[in-house]
TrEMBL record, chains A, B:
Gene3D superfamilies from the UniProt entry: Survival protein SurE-like phosphatase/nucleotidase
Membrane spanning residue stretches: none
UniProt cross-references to PANTHER family, sorted A to Z: 5'-NUCLEOTIDASE SURE, PHOSPHATASE, PUTATIVE (AFU_ORTHOLOGUE AFUA_4G01070)-RELATED
Catalyzed reaction equations: a ribonucleoside 5'-phosphate + H2O = a ribonucleoside + phosphate
Domain Survival protein SurE-like phosphatase/nucleotidase: residue ranges: 10-195
Gene: surE
Cofactor: a divalent metal cation; Mg(2+)
Family: Belongs to the SurE nucleotidase family.
Record NCBIfam families: PRK00346.1-4, PRK00346.2-2, surE
Keywords: Cytoplasm, Hydrolase, Metal-binding, Nucleotide-binding
Residues noted as binding a divalent metal cation in the record, renumbered to the chain: 15-16, 46, 102
Protein name: 5'-nucleotidase SurE
Enzyme class: hydrolase
GO cellular component term, pick one: cytoplasm
Length: 264, 264
């Protein structure tokens, strides 16, 4: 007789902080697919990119926020949360790491600035298949129905057939009802960027300060991008890599630069 | 008669902070190759990855640290420095952006955690060719002679023939004298990672806290990697991309996952 298959361990984190509605919705969506353990930042950490905490020590506190779920809040960044969870909470690698559901888009170039996605990438570096989820709606009162439904479908598929242990998926969900969603598309990252515009103000002492603002501008007309899919009410999945070598440019330099070593 | 060619504008930043010896050495190495403008963090920002400052405003102050060089210290991250420099200091794109010289290695997976490299990547997103420089020696008293010599050679080559406006190079310099350096190699990023080991301590009130430590472990036996080149006394150059799409895995998912939309 075959032994009952062990329940997969699902590590959940985010970058909006452990009290954000998005992480609660993610937990609800997948909690019966395995044993869920939550380690998430104790405060919002948006825009932290792949930051890690070197100069100050980290705190980790057990919290009772989600019924029947082991959960901890951590004073560090999303990447710190993943590292601490594996080393000091689970004491082994989980079967999968989920990050989110982020309040706001992480499509296109946002993947680089996103704490949500950096947590997922960190897990994949550690050989833990992972998925970051983001909903394009920033508001605290956002409707997570479609996000919850599709997060569950994608996590089930990933648990059944993970492409490999270093696989990390960037999943974005459009602002749409369950009925409006047209389906799930695998996409490439659109080439887009922020056009910065710092707002300049004076403090009460007459000294200047600057607020970072910016407009997201898409330069990519492809219909195979995440930006296109989301604008057309599809869920977008972009598989992400952490080998950042630009192989084409490597070849170009090897052929054209004369300052390179001739041997080897 | 041909007009005299305009001097290129060289933006310099770093992540160790504007008072670090590394940035002074980089300025010295290239200051006669163009008009140098410095915008760098007012304090160390190591390990900040691609973090940006959203929740607090930024300060920018002119400083007189480098003879004859326009320089500013900024309260934000390395990425903030690049954004502010372009929008509020230069009011146009510089011809090249240089970041460093970092005190410590940014080879292999370090590229993901590095503020030095994130500043360079941010510039490339903005269509400014850029180079991040890192010396494998952490110490404040490090010998920058070889780093200075090769930084200059590489910047000259990049100004003469930049592969394209989105080109960003990750340059690492081994701990070696000028005579010991064997040359310059274009490499791929080695597959390596940190094996985390958090040190657990108790504060005077009996509460636990954790220090992040970790050992760098190289899993990559290739002789075409940055780790190999550096161990063999070569300067390593890895061209870096910011399209993080994992195209192979994209194909794999498209073929094998049955939750995807059939149309289009």
């Amino acid at each position: 007789m075959e032994k009952e298959k062990k329940k997969p361990v699902i590590l959940i984190t985010n970058d909006d902080g452990i009290t954000a509605p998005g992480i609660k919705n993610l937990i609800e969506a997948v909690k019966d697919l395995g044993k869920v353990v939550v380690v998430a930042p104790d405060k919002p950490q948006s825009g932290m990119g792949h930051a890690i905490t070197i100069g100050v020590p980290l705190r980790l506190h057990k919290v009772n926020l989600f019924e029947g779920i082991e959960a901890y809040q951590c004073s560090g960044t999303p990447v710190d949360c993943v590292k601490l969870a594996v080393d000091k909470v689970l004491h082994h690698k989980p079967d999968i790491c989920l990050s989110g559901i982020n309040h706001g888009a992480n499509h296109s170039i946002n993947v680089i600035y996103s704490g949500t996605m950096s947590a997922a990438v960190e897990a994949a570096i550690e050989s833990i298949p992972s998925i970051g989820f983001s909903l394009l709606d920033y508001s605290l009162e956002a409707d997570f129905s479609a996000a919850r439904k599709y997060a569950r479908i994608i996590v089930e598929q990933m648990l059944q057939s993970p492409p490999n242990k270093h696989c990390v998926l960037n999943v974005n969900i459009p602002i749409a009802t369950v009925d409006e969603i047209k389906g799930v598309k695998v996409c490439r990252q659109a080439y887009a960027k922020y056009e910065e515009d710092f707002i300049e103000r004076n403090d009460p002492h007459g000294r200047k300060y600057y607020w970072l603002t910016g407009e997201f501008v898409n330069f990519d007309e492809g219909t195979d991008t995440d930006v296109w899919a989301l604008a057309n009410n599809y869920i977008s999945i972009v598989p992400v890599q952490f080998d950042l070598t630009h192989y084409k440019q490597k070849e170009h330099l090897e052929k054209n630069w004369n300052i390179l070593s001739k041997e080897g």
